[in-house]
Amino acid sequence: MTEIHTPRLLLRRWNDDDLVPMAEINADPHVMRWVDDGSVLDLDRTAEAIERWEEEWDEEGFGLFAVELLGSGELAGFTGLSVPEFLPEVRPDVAISWRFGSQFWGQGYASEAAHATLEFALQDRGLDRVISINRIGDDASENISRKLGMTPERETVHPVHRFALHVHAIDLTEFHG
Predict the structure, then answer these.
(1) pTM for the model
(2) Is residue 107 within 8 Å of residue 144, measured between CB atoms?
(3) How many Å apart are CA 7 and CA 60, to the nearest integer?
(4) How far is CA 129 from CA 26, 90, 121, 148, 171, in A?
(5) pLDDT digits (tens, 9 = 90+) for 16-29
(6) What's the alpha-carbon Rg for the chain, to the nearest Å?
């Protein structure tokens, strides 16, 4: 089982106890504002998403980690690596992403988890490049991308929802873990 410990977090694979807290995160309109078309997800759609995330682990050797607070054991959200199938123009790149409950915003958890994920990408999975894809206007995610040392690479448009996207990238050979 793949686990990463940071000073405050445990990044791990998903388990059955994660469904309800992740569904609560996905049901928050503030959290989902910048995700796809902004629609919230119910319990069933969250279960389907977690199942897809776990399948990607099995197929790709990487995926989205459940992020747990070490102090309380609470599920704070996710961060991890995925193949951005929805945006074929960036293939074969692997994307880093994150989603945290709003009660966990502003505390550096997303940056801490994303930094550990980049180290995982480079050291454990041998990736030499990672991108992030953020909606233009999502300043919090843009800030995390910059904190990771990622640089803007291009602007594009979501092929389905037609909103503007920023693509940032980092060459992991230049990443300082």
Answers:
(1) 0.94
(2) no
(3) 27
(4) 29, 12, 9, 13, 5
(5) 999 999 999 999 99
(6) 15
Is 3 within 8 Å of 10 (Cβ atoms)? yes
Three-state SS sequence of 84-148? CCCCHHHCCCEEEEEEECHHHCCCCHHHHHHHHHHHHHHHHCCCCEEEEEEECCCHHHHHHHHHC
Report the alpha-carbon distance of residue 56 to residue 127 in Å, rounded: 16
Say if CB 172 and CB 128 are below 8 A apart. yes
> Mind listing the pLDDT tens digit for each residue in 90-106?
989 999 999 999 999 99
Least Cα distance to 88 among 37, 133, 32 occurs for 133
Token pair, residue 22, equals 């992740």
Question: Distance between CA atoms of 95 and 91, rounded to whole angstroms?
Answer: 10
The region that residue 80 occupies, defined by phi over 0 for left and psi between -120 and 50 for alpha, beta otherwise, is left
